[in-house]
Specification:
Blueprint lengths: L13 H34 L14 H6 L12
Length: 79
């Protein structure tokens, strides 16, 4: 998305631009967190700890991993 004005205060479209910019930043932040989670899951695969709860050490159910492949904890310890 190209922004045509950098002076949001005096631009009649400034509020819309600011909201769009904020929404874009939030989406980007969420995508970055998801990529970090995927990288961490890949590292756990390499270490042989993927699918093991980081809190109790029990196996994370396959159904949970199917829905949330980046899960680090079992359902009992999910925050």
């Amino acid at each position: 998305m190209e922004l045509s004005s950098t002076d949001d205060e005096h631009d009649p479209e400034g509020q819309t631009t600011a909201v769009d910019r904020s929404r874009t930043e939030a989406l980007l932040s969420g995508a970055e967190r998801h990529l970090e989670d995927l990288d961490a899951a890949e590292q756990r695969l390499k270490e042989g700890t993927y699918g093991v709860c980081e809190v109790c050490g029990c196996e994370i159910p396959r159904a949970r991993l199917a829905v949330r492949p980046t899960a680090r904890t079992c359902v009992d310890h999910a925050a």
